[in-house]
Structure formats: C-alpha cells, structure tokens
Amino acid sequence: MSTPGEYYRSLPPVCKFYGVFCFMTAAAYYLKLYDPDILSLQYGLVLKRFQIWRLVSNFFYLGPFSVGFAVRLIMLARYGVLLEKGLFDKRTADFLWMMIFGAFSLLTVAPVLMLLPPYKTFMSISLVFMLLYVWSRESPNAQINIYGVVRLKGFYLPWAMLALDLIFGAPLIPDILGIIAGHLYYFLTVLYPLSTVRNILKTPLWVHKLVVFWGKGTQIDSPVEPNPSAGIAFRGRGRRLGGN
C-alpha cells in the first residue's frame, strides 16, 4: 500500500494541478479568506467591469467542504486520473486541450444558466462530469462498483451518478452540461473522424508550447522542441483522440 506522499507523486500533472487547486480554494473558503462570489461566472461583471478572471476562476471552485465536494474530488481523482494515465498516457498536451475545449464549450452555454436565479454560476462540477463521461465512453465495459451496492458497466456510470444526484436532491443541470460537453468532445475526436477520416479538433500548437513551458508531463509526437531546463521528454508530433 502506498503512502499519501507516494500516491500524490504518482498523480498525472493535469489532474494533480486541477485537484490541488480545487482543494485549496475550498480550504481557503473554510478559513474565510475570501467570498466565493468573487470566483463565480457573471458575464455582466466580465463585460461591464472587465473582471476577466471570472472566466477561469469559476472552474476551480467545487464548493465548500461537504459530501458533494468529496464526491466530485473523488470522481476527478479516480476517473480523471484513469483517463490521463490510460488513454492519454504520454499525451499531456492532448489531455490539457480536452479540458480547455470542455471549458470553452461550457462557457458558451453559461449565459443560458444565468437566465435563472441566482444569475451566477460555477462550471467546475460540469468540467469534472465531462471527464467522467469521456472516461465512460472510452471504457464502456469496465466493471464499476457504486458504494458496494450496485455493479454496472462503465458506459452507464454518468447516468448512475445523475440518478444519485436526483435522489439526493443535488442540481442536475451541471451534470447534464458536463455530459453534453463530454459528448461533443467525443463526437468531434472519435465518432466524426471514424465516419469522415477527418480530424477537426487537433491539439493546437500553443497548447503544446504551454506544456513544454510548464515542463510537466510528456507528449508523443509533439511539434515542439523539449525545454532543456525542464528535464522532461517532449518530442514528436501531437496525436488526437481517434485521429490518424
């Protein structure tokens, strides 16, 4: 059995960074160091007061410490990590691009949510649910045990989690938006290329450069030369999910 330190060091870079940041925002709120409202997505403040950070900060608040927070963080630590260490092994830039694409997709539908009270929102739960959905499509036959009670295939996991949120009275819209964003990504990177032999969602060059500058993770066939100061192998050219 590994120690907590060994487990932490074994985590892939993107999920590690995202999970730690979400935990830190919850801890800071617990210590009453800030008001979560400052992180929420409010397009009125973005456009009128140029509070641009809200376009990013809303993705890093999973809520205060609670059972719901723990469930979402476990989803990220389990299925996000399985996705990054499995399908996206040695494809850090591709995994990061998937999350960036998901965030942009969610930002486009956020104004619809803001037509409803309280006129502000956080898209972090949707982003985590998107990772869960993509994993379920890539591992449809994996056997999942939910709370030691129900066993089902990975393909049905998002819908089972959706049903549990319904039973526990949690909002369903964030989960549904995550499923939509995840299916859009899966369609553009797997289903559409399979039917047309065209890949229209390749990882942009600037994402490869960002990962090289970050100096974490690896990427097979990257178009960017490795950063000598990073000590990380990053070479070749990027490969999209379902691409040639």
How would you characterize the overall build of this protein?
This protein has 244 residues and is mostly helical. The chain is built from ten helices and two strands, in the order H-H-H-H-H-H-H-E-E-H-H-H. Helix 2 runs antiparallel to helix 5 (67-85) and helix 7 (124-138) packs across helix 9 (173-196). The longest helix has 24 residues, at 173-196.
Number of helices: 10
Strand percentage lies at under 5%
Q: Give the tally of β-strands.
A: 2
In spatial order, strands of the major sheet run: 1-2
Give the helix level as a range of percent. Answer: 55-70%
If you average the pLDDT, what whole number results?
86
Radius of gyration over C-alpha positions, nearest whole angstrom: 18 Å
What structural class do the secondary elements suggest?
mainly alpha
> N-to-C SSE series?
HHHHHHHEEHHH
Largest beta-sheet details: 2 strands, antiparallel
For this entry, give a set of tags.
disordered C terminus, 244 residues, globular, two-stranded antiparallel sheet, mainly alpha
Strand-helix topology:
Layout: H1 4-10, H2 13-30, H3 43-48, H4 54-57, H5 67-85, H6 92-113, H7 124-138, E1 143-146, E2 150-153, H8 157-168, H9 173-196, H10 205-214
Helix pairs in contact: 2-5, 5-7, 6-7, 6-9, 6-10, 7-9
What is shown here, in short?
This protein has helices at 4-10, 13-30, 43-48, 54-57, 67-85, 92-113, 124-138, 157-168, 173-196, 205-214; strands at 143-146, 150-153. By secondary structure, it is mainly alpha-helical.
